[in-house]
Amino acid sequence: MSTSSDTNPLAETAEDASHRPIRTFHARRSRIRPSAKSAIDRLWARWGIDVDDRFNFAETFRGDANIVLEIGCGMGDATVAMAAATPETTILAVDVHTPGLGVILRDCERDGIGNVRVAACDAVTLIRDHIPNDALAGIRIYFPDPWPKQRQHKRRLIQPEFVSLASSKLKSGATLHLATDWQNYADQMLEVLSNEPTLRNTSEGFSPRPDWRPVTRFESRGLRLGHAINDLLFTKV
Ligand SMILES: C[S@@+](CC[C@H](N)C(=O)[O-])C[C@H]1O[C@@H](n2cnc3c(N)ncnc32)[C@H](O)[C@@H]1O
Fold first, then answer.
1. What does the angle CA 224 – CA 70 – CA 172 come to, to the nearest 5 degrees?
2. Which of 39, 128, 137, 190 is deepest in the core (most CB within 10 A)?
3. Is any ligand 1 atom within 6 A of the Cβ of residue 32?
């Protein structure tokens, strides 16, 4: 697999005149439900994180030993259910789009869940610039944008450089958990993760979906289309 700058979301390319890294997400203006908007207005100051120059990961999570980063949480189906099931874990749920973060805040308030923090930012920047090494108890990336056309593959999040960087943020024994319904992206994920020397596969090849991972919105869409679902569970050496 190529590791050149044209397949690396961390790289800066001539394609982008302002020298921003390649975007792994779709630019869109999503509608936000009034209840989610209200949750953001009321609850952001308590549970939201503004990832700017003042953000200090260690200070924000002082006393939290079990922080799991969920990248691209979407509408938060997995986030809220998994937070409820593991109150000893703090989930940092990140997406570039805010409507889902509002839904998460709303549902956590409704269910009395206090172990979720949300951030609206590019997770590549968050990981690269703000998360210390050996800090995370896990990273979850469920159904990342598949960018199905060949010419779009450079936008896929799971590339060797990103996985190496992400792995450096995991504690020893922590888990990197991916899932996708796109077979050729699943194959790419398996190749990239298997070639990362700091990670070990917990299965031979793909893992069966663990019953503790809830079915997400994008997964349901994939299932309706008849796609096979592949999970990948690797641990940090
Ligand atoms: C296909 S959706 C999947 C959402 C959810 N995980 C699910 O399974 O239903 C992918 C999500 O990842 C988000 N995303 C993509 N690249 C991202 C990045 N670099 N940082 C944060 N979020 C990102 C997108 O905005 C989108 O909400």
1. 125
2. 39
3. no
